[in-house]
Amino acid sequence: DLAKQLGHILDDGAASGDFILANRDTAIRTILDATASLRHPAIVADQRAIDEKRVVAIADMIVAGLRKGVF
């Protein structure tokens, strides 16, 4: 499942020193919440509905938070 995959990614990032995890479960939930609209089947089916700038902004926000230990 996606939460388990994210957990592995976060664990690898923390082990390498790229991410600082204040709370692993909170980080997983936050990432899932932040990307929910990008994973919705109706949006994914209609690629025109996906705004690339928005996707990049969400990804940048998540990575910045993980690097600073916000989650």
Short description:
The protein has 71 residues and is an all-alpha fold.
Low-confidence stretches: none
What is the CA–CA distance across the termini?
20 Å
Instruction: Write down how many β-strands occur, each being a DSSP E stretch of 2 or more residues.
Output: 0
Percentage of β-strand residues:
under 5%
For the residues shown, what is the average pLDDT?
92
Biggest pleated sheet: none
Radius of gyration: 13 Å
Binned, the helix content reads over 70%
Order of helices and strands: HHHH
Number of helices: 4
Envelope shape: elongated
Structural class: mainly alpha
Q: How do the helices and strands line up, and which of them pair or pack?
A:
Blueprint: H1 2-16, H2 24-39, H3 41-45, H4 52-68
Describe the structure.
By secondary structure, the chain is mainly α. Helices cover about 75% and strands about 0% of the residues. The chain is built from 4 helices and no strands. The protein has helices at about 1-15, 25-40, 40-45, 50-70. α1 crosses α2 and α2 (about 25-40) packs antiparallel against α4 (about 50-70). The longest helix has 17 residues, at about 50-70. It is elongated. The protein starts with a helix and ends with a helix. The relative contact order is 0.18. The model has no long low-confidence stretch (mean pLDDT about 90).
